[in-house]
Design brief:
three-stranded antiparallel sheet; six-stranded mixed sheet; 15 strands; alpha+beta; 25 helices
Length: 719
């Protein structure tokens, strides 16, 4: 008998209680909070044990030390967001927090040793993501200064630029803006309107904004604090436009006043992240020296002759943007952190808050209701999947930027991975935070419990660093490109390996796809039906087959595009734009499932492996359930097996995971100083204990009033 098929037993009292409250107690009876995280959990008889410390270490990943050091710093009150601050005060506070980060030596890690850094790219991103726990505004403003502005100087510039500008960027002597986005061009960076025209007579660039839509917009540090900007503009020399390049442009003097030719506005109050001074910049024939061109990928000599180590303009452009992919990496990771925080608050509250009579003189704990489990536990599974996928992503990023795996193919893979995972995680975070807020009722709406502000701050992540829908189209086009290359001269047998090769380790498919075709009439028990689709190989098969089929169908519909005039080809793609995005999403979800499964295979602790298997199954079967219509229409699942998946989630997985819900959030290693929500740090438990003690005392002293409904029932019984 497999572990998944093991019979369920009735829970009995636990042998030991820790901070993993519900994991160590019978359903409906929350245990006291506050014990140290990390003890091995001895849970109810018949239920697996959880080693929370081991699980937490696994979640922390390769850069656990960097994450924990950052979290330790974020316990300090001077880094915490104050909800009642107005916009101006919040901006001042966040600027002060960046100065504190400099004092603590927290910002140099990814930079070269000659500038006080460690050349630790993965560690820098890992520590940066954790800043969100204190204040997302501080995290993003830090990202603007060191992840975008300083990193652009580092990665797009050369040694003279590093020596001239990096020290002041790193120690915040020169706060800087990253002036890429324009009011009229966000995701389409290649079409920005700002120009940089070379004036050979004066050996200068003339930076110019020719129309209102070309104003640089939404720029952190632009409204108040920025003294310089890395400006992306069309490089024009000798009458030829060589495409978008980056230029270092001073924008303010020591008094904070705009320099001649530079102007701008304050973006003002936003929906969130109001600790950041976002603003607009425009340039009227602003002159900077020729050497202010960040010239790693393209240079111009004193005669105006342009040279580049990359001949193709398109490849050159994407290579330049690819050096700045860390923004998408960090947004993916920060979304994971935000999701962990929101679920910790909601699950702990749901494990203590009681509502509606349970029939035993006690109200029922919210998390004992199946609907509450359905709302939160699948999202907990998604968060674990996101977390494991992010670690794979971060490993890939570090390999590319450290130079250990830095071929053109590696960089292309990293870009595709970024474009696939960042949309899924940022959208998921918004969904998770909103559901967590609603699951906490009115308490979740109070600013003191953080969820509403967290949701507002995270909202922009869906369009930061590229609109999610645009990014997913890039993923789909990459899938189609790989598909066409694979099958241009391939026999039918190669089809079976296509998507498996995309995710790397789908070994089950190497020998050919095992089809799960079924008769429309599928008799038999639910247990028998779920047995066909529950195991790892079958989940992989169903998820992989869906991606493969979607890509193949798209390829067939778009096959004629290469032979059509450009306008007609664009119209053809537009008619299938939604299908492109859905295929890319399915591919990204498959990547997350694979990362979860690979992490599962490394777990040695038996209890952790069992509980995490259930959690992975909840994620995988949840993806299939979400797309049941597709699987039924395409003949991959019969109606009966489709229903069996839902029944298995409701009747088996949710009850099995319910006792471990709090322990699974304890593994996130969030201290009370990180959570800072009353309802998740003892206040709700104190209220519930007081209420239960009050009614118990009344009953014990015989002072409890008789319920009128009981009198009526008694009278009816006598009749």
């Amino acid at each position: 008998m497999s572990t998944i098929d093991a019979p369920r037993r009735k829970a009995s009292p636990t042998k030991k209680t820790t901070s993993a409250e519900q994991a160590a107690t019978p359903l409906g009876e929350p245990a006291p909070a506050g014990a140290a995280v990390g003890e091995s959990i001895v849970s109810a008889e018949g239920s697996p044990t959880l080693d929370v410390a081991a699980l937490g270490q696994q979640l922390m990943g390769r850069w656990a030390d960097s994450r924990r050091a950052s979290r330790e710093l974020m316990k300090r009150e001077e880094f915490h967001r104050i909800p009642t601050l107005g916009m101006d005060e919040h901006r001042d506070r966040v600027l002060g927090q960046l100065k504190l980060l400099v004092e603590q030596g927290s910002v140099h890690r990814a930079f070269p040793a000659e500038f006080g850094g460690d050349d630790d790219h993965g560690g820098f991103i890992a520590s940066f993501e954790e800043l969100l726990l204190a204040d997302p505004s501080m995290q993003i403003k830090s990202g603007v200064q060191w992840g975008l502005y300083a990193s652009a100087i580092l990665h797009l510039g050369t040694a003279p630029h590093h020596a001239a500008w990096l020290p002041d960027a790193l120690d915040l002597t020169t706060p800087g803006a990253f002036a890429m986005t324009e009011t009229g061009h966000g995701s389409d960076v290649s079409a920005v309107g700002t120009t940089a025209t070379y004036d050979a007579a004066n050996d200068e660039w003339v930076i110019h904004t020719p129309f209102r839509a070309a104003w640089k917009d939404y720029l952190g540090n632009a409204a108040l604090h920025g003294r310089a900007a890395v400006v992306f503009a069309q490089l024009i020399t000798r009458g030829v436009n060589h495409g978008v390049h980056a230029f270092y442009v001073p924008i303010r003097d020591e008094n904070g006043d705009f320099l001649p030719g530079v102007g701008g506005d304050d973006d003002g109050l936003k929906g969130g992240l109001n600790g950041i001074d976002n603003g607009r910049l425009h340039f009227t024939e602003v002159r900077v020296p020729r050497t202010n061109l960040l010239n790693r990928y393209g240079d111009v000599d004193e005669n105006g002759v342009y040279t580049s180590p990359i001949e193709s303009p398109g490849r050159r452009f994407f290579t330049m943007l690819g050096t700045l992919v860390q923004g998408r990496v960090s947004l993916d990771g920060a979304s994971v952190v935000a999701s962990k925080l929101a679920l910790t608050i909601a699950i702990r509250y749901g494990n203590e808050r009681r509502q509606f009579d349970g029939g035993d003189e006690n109200e029922v704990v919210l998390l004992d209701y199946q609907r509450h489990q359905r709302r939160l536990l699948p999202r907990l599974a998604t968060t674990y999947a996101m977390s494991f996928a992010h670690e794979v992503f971060l490993e890939k990023f570090d390999a590319v930027f450290s130079g250990t795996a830095d071929t053109d193919a590696d960089r292309e893979d990293l870009e595709t991975l970024a474009a696939a995972l960042k949309p899924l995680s940022t959208w998921a975070a918004l969904d998770i935070i909103q559901e967590a807020r609603e699951a906490c009722g009115g308490q979740g709406y109070l600013a003191a419990n953080r969820l509403t502000q967290l949701r507002a701050d995270m909202d922009i992540y869906a369009t930061f660093e590229g609109d999610n829908n645009v990014l997913l189209q890039l993923v789909a086009k990459r899938l189609l490109t790989d598909y066409s290359r694979t099958f241009a001269k391939a026999d039918a047998g190669v089809m079976a390996h296509y998507v498996a090769d995309q995710v790397g380790e789908a070994v089950v498919n190497r020998s050919g796809l095992r089809r799960l075709a079924q008769s429309v009439v599928d008799f038999g028990s639910t247990a028998r039906s779920i047995g066909y689709v529950r195991d790892t190989a079958s989940q992989r098969q169903l998820l992989t087959d869906r991606v493969e089929t979607m890509v193949a169908e798209l390829a067939g519909r778009l096959r004629s595009a290469s032979k059509l005039p450009k306008r007609e080809a664009a119209a053809l793609f537009n008619r299938h734009q939604n299908a492109l995005i859905e295929a890319a999403k399915a591919h990204g979800e498959l990547l997350q499932w694979e990362a979860f499964t690979e992490a599962l295979e490394t777990i040695e602790h038996e209890g952790n492996r069992q509980v995490m298997t259930w959690l992975r199954d909840l994620f995988g079967l949840g993806l299939i359930e979400k797309n049941l219509a597709w699987y039924v229409i395409h003949g991959r699942l019969s109606d009966h097996r489709a229903q069996a998946i839902t029944d298995y989630i409701d009747d088996r997985l949710l009850p099995r995971l319910r006792p471990h819900a709090v322990a699974l959030t304890d593994a996130f290693e969030l201290a009370p100083e990180h959570i800072r929500a009353d309802i998740a740090t003892g206040a709700e438990k104190a209220r519930q204990d007081e209420a239960r003690a009050h009614y118990a005392d009344l009953r014990a002293r015989g002072l409890a009033p008789i319920d009128e409904k009981d009198l009526i029932a008694a009278k009816k019984a006598k009749r």
